[in-house]
Amino acid sequence: MTGRSHVLIGIASVVAACAEGWLAVSPFVLIGGVFGSLLPDIDTERSTLGHRCKWVARPIGRMFGHRGATHSGLLLGLAVVCLVYFGGAARLHGGWGALCLGYASHIVADMPTGGVPLLYPVSKSRISLWPYARTGGIGEFLLLLCTLTGLFGLAWWSGHNVPIRQGSGIHIQCGLSF
């Protein structure tokens, strides 16, 4: 995916998480989500962030290659555990949580465009999602459109008190007014 696509998905993920009440609403949360959505590509100088921080991108790229350690879901999980252990679970409701969410959204968004080593360093095998989409192509655009529609739809739906479970069935309350 392109840097723009990652930023848009990161923003949509943060908006949906804020609407669900998982993240606090603040400028730091939005900034954390945007930065997190660009951070995994710090392993290449051709990325949005790597282009601006070549002194960081070059050594990381040489050590791990593009879509290596920086695209590991296992290492992201370890980072989240460390955040909670050293800073408390409340850290995940602010900017740090948004950074982790943006980072995770980047990893998931790269899965249809060639896959990611999700279990790195345990396994370097790339895990990918169907349908395959070429970076910058029409497939990426369609995946981006579907993802944004889903995430912003979730944010909108969350703001309308839906769904509420009562008794044995699910009852829908929808506060729509026309």
UniProtKB/TrEMBL annotation:
Superkingdom to which the source organism belongs: Bacteria
Pfam families: YdjM
Protein name listed in UniProt: Uncharacterized protein
